[in-house]
Amino acid sequence: MTPFLTHSGIAVPLLNDNIDTDQIIPSREMKTVSKTGLAAGLFAGQRYSEGRTPNPDFALNQTKFDGASILLSGKNFGCGSSREHAVWALKDYGFRAVIAESFGEIFYNNCVRNGVLPIQMQAKDILNLGARVAVDLPNQTANKIAFDIGQGDKTMLIEGLDMIGQTLIHKANIGAFFERDKISNPWKY
Amino acid sequence: MTRTLFDKLWESHRVKILEGGEALIAIDRVFLHERTGSVALESIVESGRSPHAPENVFCTVDHIVSNKEGRGQDDARMPGGEVFITATRKAAKATGINLIDVLDADQGIVHVISPELGIAQPGLTLVCPDSHTCSQGALGALAWGIGSTDAEHAIVTGTLRVKKPPQMRITIHGALNVGVTAKDVALHIIALYGAAGAKRCAVEYAGGAVENMSVEERLTLCNMAVEFAAFTAIIAPDVKVSDYLKGKKYSPKGGAWQQASEAWQGLQSDERAKFDYDYEIDADDIKPVVTWGTSPEHAVSIDGQVPQGADYKALSYMGLNVGEVLAALPIGGAFIGSCTNGRLSDLRSAASILKGRRVAEGITAICVPGSMAVRREAEAEGLDIVFKQAGFEWGAPGCAFCFYAGGETFAPKTRVISSTNRNFEGRQGPEVRTHLASPTVVAASAVAGYICDPKNLEPLA
Ligand code: SF4
């Protein structure tokens, strides 16, 4: 996974609340059993008009947002279906960070697992960010505005770690846990 | 120190406290389905890793599989969908996990078969790359939805890295009024506190109204916790849960059953346990609920109107105006099924309304049982005949019209009353306008031809 330290890019606002993962990538766009090649399906429902031509009203199709790599949104971004394809599609399109008032829990974790930085901020701060945003994860700022992030998530993102590998470091603890549990809760096994 | 039920399950599964506020939590069971699980399985095969405990990993085929009578084992309901089914089958075999295949007698929607087969049990941790895994909290399991990468992690390591969520309790005092279902309770709560109202909490449902619910009703209530932005939901297991699980395929047997049912008795929050948020509701305030918009929080009681200040975008998608009365809106489609309301008790309650009645002219009405077992039991009771005679289609188990996969659906702009859990834009098909409601309201509306409270149906002659 690509480590995330700092990133500066064009920010595109999609400020509605409750943008769900069905909107981020509609089911019909999840065509293969694959984590890549999903950019074309990103926001497909709103991004395209009939005949799959770009819908000029949708922000991503406007020239000023060409090459946008930071997404701004409202409350509960990424709620709904757990489909990780939502993050894979954002990443495939070129997004590195999403800044929103709050996130769907599963989507938030999926971002961290895939090196996309989810930043939680108050609405008024999001509105003040402007057209270009410079994110500094080690110092936890976006255009100098401070944000909070869990220490575990921060480390994962900064170091771009393979989490399964990291967890398998604790293999002995895990083995011992299950051995003990088999004795105290034999009905589970 | 007093502890909540969630604390107890969390601590009994905590392998290790990690740096940075996370804990390594032992995972007892993993469930997968062909849409998001196949990616996880393929990735395991490719990486040359293997499952920690393949006997505790289960995979069903429910999302993309055809819901037509007489379907073949690879038949999908979207073009190209057979790839998901065949890839899942192949990867399940390669990893040695339990596959519940399309034509198996146990096949069904993951969250319907998980309790039905006794895979979900009180006190277990259970995860699935599907957001409605929270349903299983109804049995007193610690169950939550994850992404595909985390599913891979859980299968390979037997654990997940999790930040402990904050905790909320919602106590529903009193008894529900006649005609009010668990679905109405779920929608009422979301409308009251908002679709982000659970603030990523583990939510414990408690109180007289919850104690009175059957296990199936509790499954419906917990199912929609994710629509409420909860990490998961949980209900303290009682004797109803033990009775429900006794003799199920994967439930503990013999001496293990004794040990299990004793262990389950201690699974409840201590009397003075502290919650970060502690809300109380009066059951008497809850009426049958129907949604008007494109978020589950856009919900009012069935005798209500589209509220002042309603979200403009939602209104334009739904083709509605402020002040419109819901219980008069003509509908074009009705769907009964899904992990929210596709169980036997749901089909029974809908059939009790449909018996001796017919769906109104021009309405596409479909019922898809949540699992093969539900379908068999329903057919044994003759419910299929009731549905068919009323003019409903009777489908083969799966998610079906709960979400649009890219194949068959309702025509654009059709107003559909649905027993499912999501009314998002396009959820049931491009431009399809979904109104969420209980199975009885769906049945009554299908008969009336407009959104209708069952109590307002013309009595049978
Ligand atoms: S029935 Fe609907 S909500 Fe339930 S698992 Fe299937 S698609 Fe998801």
Compact description:
Chain A has helices at about 20-25, 45, 85-95, 105-115, 125, 150-160, 165-170, 170-185, and strands at about 5-15, 70-75, 95-100, 115-120, 130-135, 140, 145. Chain A has about 190 residues and is α/β, with parallel strands linked by helices.
Overview of the molecule:
The complex is a heterodimer of chains A (about 190) and B (about 450). Chain A is an alpha/beta fold and about 190 residues long. Chain A has a single domain (about 5-160), classed as Aconitase, domain 4 (Alpha-Beta Barrel), CATH 3.20.19. Helix content of chain A is about 30%, strand content about 15%. Chain A contains eight helices and seven strands; from the N terminus they run βααβαβαβαβββααα. Chain A has helices at about 20-25, 45, 85-95, 105-115, 125, 150-160, 165-170, 170-185; strands at about 5-15, 70-75, 95-100, 115-120, 130-135, 140, 145. Chain B has three domains: about 25-160, 2-Layer Sandwich (Aconitase, domain 3), CATH 3.30.499.10; about 165-285, 3-Layer(aba) Sandwich (Aconitase, Domain 2); about 295-455, Aconitase, domain 3, CATH 3.30.499. Chain B has helices at about 5-10, 35-45, 80-95, 110-115, 150-155, 180-195, 210, 215-225, 240-245, 255-265, 310-320, 340, 345-355, 370-380, 385-390, 440-450; strands at about 15, 20-25, 30-35, 55-60, 100, 125-130, 140-145, 160-165, 165-175, 200-205, 230-235, 275-280, 290, 300, 335, 365, 390-395, 415-420, 435. The interface between A and B is large, with 54 and 72 residues.
